[in-house]
Design goal:
The protein is an all-alpha fold. The protein contains 4 helices and no strands. It is about 80% helix and about 0% strand.
Length: about 100
């Protein structure tokens, strides 16, 4: 980014650009870590029998994978609550 570009940005646009750069760098690092885990898993499994092979997630579970699982669980819980409330509402209408 040139000096002129910097001074033409509003604080909000600059903040968005910085956030985008951080996200980009994080995704690059994430990709590198996942590639290394894949390579390590392949090296470990190359001489093992099929039933003795390990999965990549068995080596290490990254923080972003844990967060993803938590978000999926939260979404499932919200769906279940919605369906329960809907069923209760229908039951009240039948009885009501």
């Amino acid at each position: 980014m040139s000096v002129d570009e910097f001074w033409d940005y509003t604080p909000y646009l600059f903040q968005l650009k910085v956030k985008g750069k951080r996200n980009f760098d994080f995704e690059l690092q994430k990709s590198e870590w996942e590639r290394m885990r894949f390579q390590t898993t392949a090296l470990i499994n190359k001489d093992r029998k099929r039933q003795d092979q390990i999965k990549a997630i068995d080596l290490v579970e990254f923080e972003w994978e844990k967060t993803k699982k938590q978000n999926e669980r939260l979404t499932e819980m919200k769906k279940a609550q919605y369906l329960l409330m809907k069923a209760q509402k229908e039951q009240k209408q039948k009885n009501g």
